[in-house]
Amino acid sequence: MSAAQPEREVLTWELYGQGVRELAQAVADSGFVPDVVLGIARGGLIPAGSLAYAIDCKNLFTISVEFYTGVDSRLDVPVMLPPFLNAQDLDSAAVLVVDDVADTGKTLELVADFCAGHVREMRTAVLYEKPHSVIACDYAWRRTSRWINFPWSTEPPVTSRSGVLDA
């Protein structure tokens, strides 16, 4: 690895399987039983689905939030994207909000604010939490300050919305 490229955390599919089971076990061991697993699209969808299966929760909702536009490149603030979740669908529910990483924590903070006043209880679960996150997650499998290569987003897309792919 060149000196110019910082060391990265590399999550393989096999390690992901182990990590998500350990994260699910932490949720189960805590006694928290969510009525709804709420996955933050896009990065949180795969962990949310896996956790929902592992903790036997059939109510899986999604919320789309855009923040990252590339490696260490992000918008000023995260924004919700349509289709929008109806917050009333969460009324009086125990909700487990799931994302792949709490980097700045601002995405989780936005979703927590969205859920406020509706949910009975909300907890957060991530595969990775970074030390500078503004949200302290209830469940985190690993903590790191490095950039993370996730198995679902390491390879470039096979097609592009603009029709042009980088070579």
From TrEMBL:
TM annotation in the entry: none
Gene3D superfamilies: 3.40.50.2020
UniProt entry keywords in alphabetical sequence: Glycosyltransferase, Transferase
Annotated Pfam families: Pribosyltran
Domain Phosphoribosyltransferase: 9-155
Record GO terms (molecular function): glycosyltransferase activity
Protein's UniProt name: Phosphoribosyltransferase domain-containing protein
Organism in which the protein naturally occurs: Microlunatus sagamiharensis
